[in-house]
Every structure is written in structure tokens, then in C-alpha cells.
TrEMBL record:
Molecular function via GO: NAD binding; UDP-glucose 6-dehydrogenase activity
UniProt similarity note: Belongs to the UDP-glucose/GDP-mannose dehydrogenase family.
Lineage: Bacteria, Pseudomonadati, Pseudomonadota, Gammaproteobacteria, Alteromonadales
Pathway terms, separated by semicolons: Nucleotide-sugar biosynthesis; UDP-alpha-D-glucuronate biosynthesis; UDP-alpha-D-glucuronate from UDP-alpha-D-glucose: step 1/1
Database matches in SMART domains: UDPG_MGDP_dh_C
Organism: Ferrimonas balearica (strain DSM 9799 / CCM 4581 / KCTC 23876 / PAT)
GO biological process: polysaccharide biosynthetic process; UDP-glucuronate biosynthetic process
Protein name as catalogued: UDP-glucose 6-dehydrogenase
Annotated signal sequence range: none
């Protein structure tokens, strides 16, 4: 099937590659000329395990193309995916300008029937807006071309995006049009061979399903962080509590890891957007507001512990920071807890020696060159002469470090662990001051 994908970000690029990999002919359109040029040279702008070979392979085979020529993109695909960003507006609601700009583009150039698919995360009612937008541009053009608008939210996880798209838990399709549903079924047929994963529903329910999923996951994290803060004060160990509750299948082990807050391009923005959407219809989304508040507060927990140990003035102190990305296996720094920590450390006068396996380039792009941030080539190098080690991201390579070496390199044996990677008692025996999250046993 011929498919066009507008937006080659994390979602668009991964989805396009996976669709091309099963044989569809996919044309990707983006407004970012530099990104398109790099992709045409086989250079992948983001880090995602397994993505680079898949893009190269399908690009070389001619099934995956990249262009800034929107008209050519519209002519190419029977299915037109909208996978552009929906960043927060000034008040936190989803900014639909990019989605609607693509709708305009499709309407301006279409001359054969299209199925327009909202892949971006968009508030309930957006498919109606996209439909109206396309209809009004077609009317202006005096063109009579059939089209349907479908909601098909994306549930991939950054860091495992390729695997998630190859073997999705579910494929949600929101439409009440039999023709559009049939086209979508055919498109996703290769991903349904083992078992039927498609869930068909009305458009508004599909739009809300995406927000409900992300808000539920964010709620689990904030709930657990609240428990961690209680455990800290009550002298309990949240890690024991986590194992104790996770064993109940009604609760499960997923997404109940306490830490220094959730980040990324989705949870913070989607929780906020649903709160604003609820406000807009006079509904006070009490749980979601608390989820957001707990998370904002949790992003300051590492700094609070650092102040507890060193006092407020960190002038002359050097902090070794392991992990900058908002989670492992990505270079994405959007809303990362590390950014809140860096700002607070700099404000208090500290200098940071940081290392991340994938997010160094992105960190450099965001912060540029500055005296109080040195990006180090290895996690070991980041330790040299630092007053303490702080962990923000649970990269696999940080899980079993050489503690003798850490002790030898740090000026003081202090670890602030934002992801509870280590055993507090074992570290205490080795002579470390160890601050975890909600472990009650800190120091
Ligand atoms: P992104 O910012 O990585 O990529 C968006 C791309 O769209 C950019 O390359 C940008 O240049 C391009 N673009 C903007 N306007 C355009 C236009 N008019 N025509 C063509 N291209 C245009 O965004 P992302 O992380 O891929 O997210 C896209 C959407 O998917 C968002 O709504 C997001 O909430 C949702 N989503 C993201 C994830 C995730 O993990 N990143 C997961 C599920 C859903």
C-alpha cells in the first residue's frame, strides 16, 4: 500500500520504517530540510535501538523515501499519516497548529480519495477539526474528493519504539467509516498475524484512549513517588514495599518504580493537556492535577538531598552526573529530571561533570558551551575529583559499577541515587553516604 507520513520525528520515522519494512511504499514528508537531507544520506537524527539499520535497509530498497515536497507526498499515499508534534500551548493545552497545517496541506494538494490518519496525540474533537479544515479547503478549491479522517494513536515507548511498532500490544483505530476501517485493517494486517491486536472504536474514544493510557502510567509513577516520600519519613524501604505490592497481579510490577520524576515528551505534556481539556468543559481533574504536582516536586528531590548533605552553598563543588536522558535507551532530553537538577546545581554554584551513553550531543545542543558543565567521554571520567555522584537515568551500564573505583575517584564517597539502583546497606558497609529515593535507610 502507498503511505505518506507527515513528520519524521520519533513517531513518524519509526512508524514509517516499520511500515516500509513489511513492504508498504512509504513517503515521509517533513518541513525540516536539514533532517530530510540527513535521512537521505542515511544519517538518523534520533537514537532508537534497531532504527538505523531498518531505515537504511528500506531506504536502499526504495520503499522508504524522504522529502520536503508536500505536494509529492500528498499525491503518493492513499493513507496520509499526520505524525507531527503537538507541544503544549502557553496554558498547557495541546497546540494543534502543526496538525492543522498538515490538514491544510493535504487538502490543498489531494486529487484522489485519501484516508487521513491522526497519529499525533491530539485532544478529543481534533479529528472533527481536521475533517472541517480539509472540507473547507476542498470547498475553496472547488474540488470534490472523498476522504475520511481516522484516529490511530501511537503507543510506542521511546527506547523500544521499533520493537513496539513491530509487535504492538494493540492497534487502536477510531472511525465509524467501514471503508476507512478496511483500509486501516489492510495496512496493519502484517502486524496482526499472530493474534488480532486491532481495537476498533469511535473517533472520540480513540482520541481519549491515548490520553487515558499516558495519564494512567503517569499516575502510577506519581503514586509510587508519594509512597516513597512517605516511606522516607516513616523509616520504611520503598523497594521492599514495591516488591510487596507488585506481586499482586491486580497491581503488577510495571511502572511502580520510585525515582526522581517522570519526564519526556509525552507524560508531562499529555497530563497537562488533559487537565486543560477537562478545565475547558468545567471538569476539575483532581487526580491529574495531583499527579502533575507530585511529579514537579519529585524532580527536586535529588537537589533537596544534595543540600541536606552539603548545605545550600555549592560554590567550589563539582558533581558527577550519570544520566541526562529522561529515560534509558534514548537521547531525548525533553522534560528530563536531569535538566531541573542541572539548573538547581548551577544556581547553587556547583560545576557538573556529566556523562550519558546517548544524550551527550543533545545536551550540548541544549546548553551549548558553559563553564559549569563539562561533558565527559565515559562514566568513569565523570567521577574524577568530584565531590559526589548523582544518578538521574537508570542506564543498564550504571547498574553494577566498580564501587572501589568510584570511591577512589570521588573526593568524598557520596552517592545520590535518583533511580534506586544500588543496595543501601551494601554501600554503607563500603563506607559510602548513600541517598536513595524513599529508602528510609539513607546515609
Ligand atoms: P517530534 O517533535 O520528534 O517530530 C515531529 C516532526 O514533525 C518534526 O520532525 C517536525 O519537523 C515535523 N513537522 C512539523 N510540522 C510539519 C509539517 N507541517 N509538515 C511535515 N512535518 C512537520 O515529535 P514526536 O515525538 O514524533 O511526536 C509526534 C506526535 O506523536 C506528538 O503528538 C506526540 O505526542 C505523539 N507521540 C509521541 C511519542 C513519543 O514517544 N515521542 C509516543 C506516542 C505518541
Amino acid at each position: 500500500m502507498k503511505v505518506t507520513v507527515f513528520g519524521v520525528g520519533y513517531v513518524g520515522l519509526v512508524q514509517a520504517s516499520v511500515l516500509a519494512d513489511v513492504g508498504h511504499e512509504v513517503c515521509c514528508v517533513d518541513v525540516d530540510q536539514d533532517k530530510v537531507d540527513r535521512l537521505n544520506q542515511g544519517l538518523i537524527p534520533i537514537y532508537e535501538p534497531g532504527l538505523e539499520p531498518m531505515v537504511r535497509h528500506n531506504h536502499d530498497a526504495g520503499r522508504l523515501t524522504f522529502t520536503t515536497d508536500a505536494a509529492a507526498g500528498v499525491h503518493h499515499g492513499k493513507v496520509q499519516f499526520i505524525a507531527v508534534g503537538t507541544p503544549p500551548d502557553e496554558d498547557g493545552s495541546a497546540d494543534l497548529q502543526y496538525v492543522l497545517a498538515v490538514a491544510d496541506t493535504i487538502a490543498r494538494h489531494m486529487d484522489s480519495p485519501k484516508v487521513v490518519v491522526d497519529k499525533s496525540t491530539v485532544p478529543v474533537g481534533t479529528a472533527d477539526k481536521v475533517r472541517q479544515r480539509i472540507a473547507s479547503v476542498l470547498k475553496e478549491r472547488g474540488a470534490d474528493v472523498a476522504f475520511q479522517v481516522v484516529s490511530n494513536p501511537e503507543f510506542l515507548k521511546e527506547g523500544a519504539a521499533v520493537a513496539d511498532c513491530m509487535r504492538p500490544d494493540r492497534i487502536v483505530i477510531g472511525s465509524d467509516d467501514e471503508v476507512a476501517i478496511e483500509v486501516m485493517r489492510e495496512l496493519y494486517e502484517p502486524f496482526n498475524r499472530q493474534q488480532e491486536r486491532t481495537v476498533i472504536m469511535d473517533v472520540r474514544s480513540a482520541e481519549l484512549t491515548k490520553y487515558a493510557a499516558n495519564c494512567m502510567l503517569a499516575t502510577k509513577i506519581s503514586f509510587m513517588n508519594e509512597m516513597a516520600n512517605l516511606a522516607e519519613k516513616l523509616g520504611a524501604d520503598i523497594e521492599a514495599v514495591r516488591r510487596g505490592i507488585g506481586s499482586d497481579p491486580r497491581i503488577g510490577y510495571h511502572f511502580i518504580y520510585p525515582g526522581c520524576g517522570y519526564g519526556g515528551s509525552c507524560f508531562p505534556k499529555d497530563v497537562q493537556a488533559l487537565i486543560r481539556a477537562a478545565d475547558g468543559i468545567g471538569h476539575d481533574a483532581k487526580i491529574l492535577k495531583a499527579v502533575e504536582q507530585v511529579n514537579d516536586d519529585q524532580k527536586t528531590v535529588l537537589m533537596r538531598n544534595i543540600r541536606r548533605h552539603f548545605g545550600d552553598d555549592l560554590k567550589g563543588r563539582t558533581i558527577a552526573l550519570w544520566g541526562l536522558a529522561f529515560k534509558p535507551n534514548t537521547d531525548d532530553m525533553r522534560e528530563a529530571p536531569s535538566r531541573v537538577l542541572l539548573a538547581a546545581l548551577w544556581e547553587a554554584g556547583a560545576r557538573v561533570q556529566a556523562y550519558d551513553p546517548e544524550a551527550m550531543e543533545e545536551t550540548q545542543r541544549i546548553f551549548g558551551h558553559r563553564d559549569n558543565l563539562v561533558l565527559m567521554g565515559t562514566k568513569e571520567a565523570a567521577l574524577k575529583g568530584a565531590d559526589a555522584l548523582v544518578i538521574c537515568t537508570e542506564w543498564q551500564a550504571f547498574r553494577a559499577p566498580d564501587f572501589d573505583f568510584i570511591q577512589q575517584e570521588l573526593r568524598q564517597p557520596v552517592i545520590f541515587d535518583g533511580r534506586n539502583l544500588y543496595d543501601p546497606e551494601r554501600l554503607a558497609k563500603r563506607g559510602f553516604h548513600y541517598y536513595g529515593i524513599g529508602r528510609g535507610l539513607s546515609i
